């Protein structure tokens, strides 16, 4: 399979490129500079420009771009930047998929689509939730419209919190635990929709290779855990005790809406479509995923 990937230099993209190549797929990487390698193709989303010939013989496009959600406070300008960094490239790629008749378009999204579900389990049939992240995901997914209208198989990759040896959620939490500063957030009862990096890229490959997979796809581990359970598992993985919990009011005061939605909202998300279509998880429990990530 010949696959074009946007966002190939990020945490997930880098791992996905290697994973697909090891599986025998031909991967082209979109870059926002002059191409410097045979597998690179240039593009400029704001202008809608993509190098001629990029989509010749391509079987699928994977879209993983987007500015980091936790990199800076959510000012009005930052919220617009987060939205534009997702919707503009997605619209450009969806139009290209439609124009060139690419059969499949796998586009990034997030479990933030569901808002705060508290302890209520949700699968891909659940409606959108409330909040900035939910609004962002709705706009992000809507940007795939041209590809869907053209008849491409569109998969919306609603990704959870990725557990990786480098970066992702552990890039923030692991140093805190090693410094004996790792404690639960708020009540700790909010669900944290985790997924190992291995299963993240494995699920994307599975979706690429299986035509039965279509529409929203929750990429999360099969065993949901609360923040308190995740905290306990991470403490065990790094060999450190948990520390004093961080009260919800402190998170809201220091981080505002970003802290509310990213640390205190709970999402008990289930990977229903992956399970129904036969995906085999490498990591079934969060402890397994954390041990693998910390030990890497």
Task: Write the topology of this structure.
Layout: E1 2-6, H1 11-22, E2 26-31, E3 40-44, E4 49-50, E5 60-63, H2 76-100, E6 104-110, E7 121-122, H3 132-142, H4 145-149, E8 153-159, E9 161-163, H5 168-178, E10 191-192, E11 194-196, H6 197-209, E12 215-219, E13 225-226, H7 227-238, H8 248-264, E14 268-269, H9 272-276, H10 286-295
Parallel strand pairs: 1-2, 1-5, 2-3, 5-6, 6-8, 7-14, 8-12, 9-11
Antiparallel strand pairs: 3-4, 10-13
Helix pairs in contact: 1-6, 2-3, 7-10
Give an overview in words.
Helices cover 41% and strands 19% of the residues. It has 10 helices and 14 strands. The chain has helices at residues 11-22, 76-100, 132-142, 145-149, 168-178, 197-209, 227-238, 248-264, 272-276, 286-295, and strands at 2-6, 26-31, 40-44, 49-50, 60-63, 104-110, 121-122, 153-159, 161-163, 191-192, 194-196, 215-219, 225-226, 268-269. The strands form 4 sheets. It has an 8-stranded mixed β-sheet, with helices on both faces. α1 (11-22) crosses α6 and α7 runs parallel beside α10. Residues 3-213 form the NAD-dependent epimerase/dehydratase domain. Residues 246-292 form the DUF1731 domain. This is Epimerase. InterPro entries: DUF1731, Epimerase_deHydtase, NAD(P)-bd_dom_sf, SDR39U1.
